[in-house]
Amino acid sequence: MVRHGMNKTGKSIGIIGLGGSGHLAVKFAKSFGATVTVLSTSPSKKDEALGVLGAHRFIVTSNKEEMEIAAKSLDYIIDTASGDHTLDPYLALLKTGGMLLLIGAPRELKFSPANLFLGMKSIVGSVGGGTKEMEEMLDYCANHGIAPIIELIPIQYINEALNRLSNNDVRYRFVVDIEGSLHME
C-alpha cells in the first residue's frame, strides 16, 4: 500500500473481499486516513465491515444501483479475492488515474482493456515486500494497534477448521495453538 501511495491522507480506497487479507487492508487504509469502502458479494458482512472494522461504506457488488452510485469514486481498489472474477465492474469504480492492486491469487481474471484506457487506470500486483519493508510494516502495526482478528484453535480441531475454511466460515484467520494442544488430554 505504501509503495503505491495509498498511505496519503484523504485517499478513497475500496477493498474487495473481507477475509484474512481484506480485513487487514481495511485496518491499514483507515490508519492512513483514507475513506474506506468494502466491496463484497455477501450482504451478511456489512455489519462487520462498518461496525467492527470501521469502514465508511459497504457496497454489495451485485447491487447495480449501489455500484452505479459509486462509479468513479475510488482512488484505489485492493483486490484480495482469490476466486475467479471479472474486474470490469470494479474498474468502473476507479477515478481517472485510479489503480487496482491485486493481492489475491485467482486462477484467472477477465477485463476489457478499454476499461483501462478510458480513464488511464492501471492494474498492479504485489505479494509483499522484502525484509526492510516487512520490518517497517510490523513497526507501523505495533505503533498503530493493527493486528489480525484470529480464531485460536487446538491442533485437534484442524479437520473442522479445514471444512470451515472451504465453506468460507473463518473470522478471519485460524491460528493453531500448538503448545496448548500438546497439553490437552
Summarize the structure.
The protein is 33% helix and 26% strand.
Describe the model.
The protein is an alpha/beta fold. Helix content is 33%, strand content 26%. The chain is built from 8 helices and 10 strands. Strands 3-2-1-4-6-8 form a 6-stranded parallel β-sheet, covered by helices on one side. Strand 1, helix 1 and strand 2 form a beta-alpha-beta unit. It is globular. InterPro entries: ADH-like_C, CAD-like, NAD(P)-bd_dom_sf. Residues 22-141 form the Alcohol dehydrogenase-like C-terminal domain. Pfam families: ADH_zinc_N. It comes from Ceratopteris richardii. This is Alcohol dehydrogenase-like C-terminal domain-containing protein.
The best one-word shape is globular
Gyration radius, rounded: 18 Å
Provide the succession of SSEs. Answer: EHEHEHEEHEEHEHEHEH
Give the strand content.
Answer: 25-35%
- In which order are the strands of the major sheet placed? 3-2-1-4-6-8
**Which parts are unreliable, with pLDDT below 50 for 5 consecutive residues or more?**
none
How many angstroms separate the termini?
A: 45 Å
Structural class comes to alpha/beta
Number of helices: 8
Q: Classify the helix fraction into a percent range.
A: 25-40%
Average of pLDDT:
89
Largest sheet: 6 strands, parallel
Could you tell me the number of beta strands? 10
Cofactor: Zn(2+)
Keywords: Metal-binding, Oxidoreductase, Zinc
Domain Alcohol dehydrogenase-like C-terminal: 22-141
Protein name: Alcohol dehydrogenase-like C-terminal domain-containing protein
